Predict the 3D structure of the following.
Amino acid sequence: MSRASETVARIRRLPRDRPLLTLGLAVLVVELVGASGAVFTAQGLAGWYGTLERPALAPPNWVFGPVWTTLFALIGVAAWLVWRRADESPRKVRLAAIAFVAQFALNLAWSAAFFGLQRIGVALVVIVLLWLLIAATISTFARVDRRAGALLVPYLLWVSFAVYLNYGFWTLN
């Protein structure tokens, strides 16, 4: 077995060998990567966002931090549950990982489009694509571990609400 193969095998076994450590690591990584979108959010909140006409159901700004922190924790746990099955279902896990990375990239792209570029219409297209990729990620995660798919449902629901908000901002502004 080559060194690269041994390393991959060790990484695949790590969640089973060190469950608490890897669970914490998975949640921490998702929280940190998710928080990186706040760079764009901070740019837009500084002035531009406050000038926008808000949709009727838009929550106060302070709601978003706790909601996203909770969602990213759930996403991290879901990713860890999938990672734990890497030895048993490598193809399914690989497909789930691809869907996961793609939806996460779009999640960050939405913050960049909406707050960074201040392009509400572009952000609306991105968030609709994000919604579709989250649904695909739920499906691929559930094929590996049903609990992992279920943990992403609140994320899909929140992004559904965010689609409404984004559409509202687009039509009002």
Remarks:
- The mean pLDDT is 93.
- Helices lie at 3-17, 19-35, 38-45, 64-83, 90-116, 120-144, 146-151, 153-172.
- The first helix runs from residue 3 to 17.
- The radius of gyration is 18 Å.
